[in-house]
Design brief:
- 80% of the residues lie in helices and 0% in strands.
- It contains five helices and no strands.
- The longest helix is centred in the middle third of the chain and has 27 residues.
Length: 151
Amino acid sequence: MNAHTSLSKTAAASAARRDTLWNPDAAACWSLLFTPLFGAYLLIRNWEALGEPKRAVRACWWFALSLMFVILNFYYSLLRAEASPLRMSNVIFLLVWYIAEASPQERFIRERLGTDYARHSWAVALPCALVLLMAYVFGYVRMLALIMQVH
């Protein structure tokens, strides 16, 4: 191990000790309900708090991809007039996101900090995510009702 490697580990560890982090495994689990959009946003915030801007940018790309996937899924489901926009493709996307993004962050935190880091409370994030999910479902139901009236 060279001095540069240990310096970056120390910098990441001290940054994370100053800032609170979201538990990446919990964020991934909540993404089962709230989509990878929710988890990707939290992982972006974690990478920023850990002082890892390149990894934060990668997480931003996952956020953008998740947003695009949710929008396409929304409209595809409406065009097919499905009662539920949930499909197997959602689960597959979630698994790919977890393997590619959430799991590496969990390993990074575990290797650098162990379990000794300050964690964010879910008291604000979960109600906000629930409100957004309800807005999504309400919007979907309204749009589906409009499409059914037209047909």
